[in-house]
Amino acid sequence: MKRILIVNGHPDKESFNYALAEAYQKGAAHATLDQLNLIDLVFDPNLNYGYRKRTDLEPDLKKAWQKIKDADHLVWVFPMWWYSYPALMKGFIDRTFLPGHAFEFEEGKVLPKKILKGKSARIIVTADTPRWYDYLWMRSPALNQFKKGTLQFCGIDPVRVTYIAPIKHSSAAFRDKWLQRIERLGQRLG
User: Fold this and answer.
1) How far apart are CA 186 and CA 26, in angstroms?
2) Which of 61, 107, 134, 181 is 20 to 30 Å from the Cα of 161, by its Cα?
3) What Cα–Cα distance (Å) separates residue 187 from each residue in 11, 132, 155, 174?
């Protein structure tokens, strides 16, 4: 049975992102599930010294990293803001996806060793920008950065993306349809 970790990067617990995370969790009820709401964690989001000097992880980050290590499949739910993801999520990634944790620099090699191999992921991103505009005009910076520059860089593959837009001014029927789709995604994996 797959161990699934749902990571919610939205800072507002009343957001549609939380409903999406719950829908996925409902669908994957037969799997071993855990959920991590980043807003509930107490940590400094700043990587104060870069990789020059290690800052000890706060207790919440240690627990969160253990959940990531234990999971077979990671589901990341977050909004796209300014063609990126929320600062809270960026700070979490900066502080946890570290050398020695998620990847390892190797002497004489350009690319690091990918420590998180064997895991898969699903990105569920909400946006107000239509997908075609994000893809054709902006070249999907948030998705490329997170999918390729973080998850696949560390060995997580495959990484599938579910892009839900536009959220602003969306109807209840639109949102309900997406909640059902996300629940079915959870059922398929769970």
Assistant:
1) 7
2) 61
3) 26, 28, 25, 20
As a whole number, the mean pLDDT across the chain is 96
> β-strands 103-104, 113-114: how paired?
antiparallel
Tens digits of residue pLDDT in 14-34? 999 999 999 999 999 999 999
The CATH number given to whatever domain includes residue 98 is: 3.40.50.360
**Polymer length of the chain:** 190
Phi, psi of 30 (to 5 degrees): -85, 0
Overall average pLDDT of the 111-133 stretch? 95
d(CA 117, CA 114): 6
| Domain count of the fold of the chain | 1
Would you tell me how many other CB atoms lie within 10 Å of the CB of residue 7? Answer: 23
Which residues form the domain of 18?
3-189
Share of the chain above pLDDT 90, in %: 92
* pTM for this entry: 0.95
